[in-house]
Amino acid sequence: MKPKLTIRLCEPRGFCAGVDRAIQIVVLALKRFGAPVYVRHEIVHNRFVVEGLEAKGAVFVEELDEIPAEHRMQPVVFSAHGVPKSVPADAEARNLFYLDATCPLVSKVHKQAMRHQRLGRHVVLIGHAGHPEVIGTMGQLEPGAVSLIETVEDADRYVPADPENLGFVTQTTLSVDDTAGVIARLQERFPKLAAPAADSICYATTNRQEAVKHAAPGCDLFLIVGAPNSSNSKRLVEVAEKAGAKKSLLVQRASEIDWDNLGDISVVGLSAGASAPEVIVNEIIAAFKSRFDATVDLAVTAEENEHFLVNRELREVELTASDMAFVNG
């Protein structure tokens, strides 16, 4: 007889509107212009998604100079994380046709940073060094115009040239609680620090963290579906442990779960980062059901109905459920 198991499935989970839009842009570009469609960097941080798009004819490159001259008229898509201003400028210099899949909420942070600068403030960016979104945001302004702060310790050490004229923005995928601590320390040290006109951490990051917080207490194990280089997915693992799950793990596929060493479990929490496809969530639930007498309880904390329009050049192309079945099931 199979042991009983309750799976607490978080809602919302998985793709946010910005990720959905970015993947749709590549799929629609392939439908309209044919293969190859080039993509600079991973369109979103998920290997399964990248491989699914490669199978459809997308070619992923690190830099624009990798695009062969004979394919110059084929589209190149910029990832959802956003790019420095130098990248579209480079594309234009090379006479490339590009489609920008930057998430509108990341673009909003870019505008907030530029607004701070326009008002004479030095920009403080709270985020993780080396993350593509951070590179993109810092690249909206000239070198030296943005200072990156990662931790409360960084906030303690920070010595600005003009403490009276500072404005902050944040990476969209940070832990809400951790970021609050960094902001509080900066505000304590620099009382005139100006906040952005609207919250930088995106609604989807906040919603997924809240759902995990709600579901985590009493969980013997909490699984987050996501990639190791996905900032928002890694934050969900941390949130689950802080909120009371005995153990929390990041997994990319059901095959990564160490089934022989799960121990005595009766309640498992399950969520997915904003770039993790629903087909993998379904795969993991099926894998548990093959080993346990499992029931799925929904842990719902919010309803999301945001939808971001794709680029104007693609709006006439029909997008069908079968076009997106490789990620949505």
Could you please describe the fold and organization of this structure?
The chain has 329 residues and is an alpha/beta fold. It contains 11 helices and 12 strands. Strand 9 (221-225), helix 9 and strand 10 form a beta-alpha-beta unit. 42% of the residues are buried. The model has no long low-confidence stretch (mean pLDDT 96).
Précis, in short:
With 329 residues, the protein is an alpha/beta fold.
Shape: flat
Weakly predicted, low-confidence segments: none
How many DSSP H or I helices? 11
Distance between the termini: 30 Å
Walk me through the topology.
Blueprint: E1 4-11, H1 17-33, E2 37-40, H2 47-56, E3 58-61, E4 75-78, H3 86-93, E5 97-100, H4 104-118, E6 122-126, H5 132-138, E7 146-149, H6 152-157, E8 166-170, H7 176-189, H8 203-215, E9 221-225, H9 231-242, E10 248-251, E11 267-272, H10 278-291, E12 293-300, H11 325-328
Parallel strand pairs: 1-11, 1-12, 2-3, 2-4, 4-5, 6-7, 6-8, 9-10, 9-11
Relevant terms:
four-stranded parallel sheet; 36% helix; five-stranded parallel sheet; 11 helices; single chain; 19% strand; 12 strands
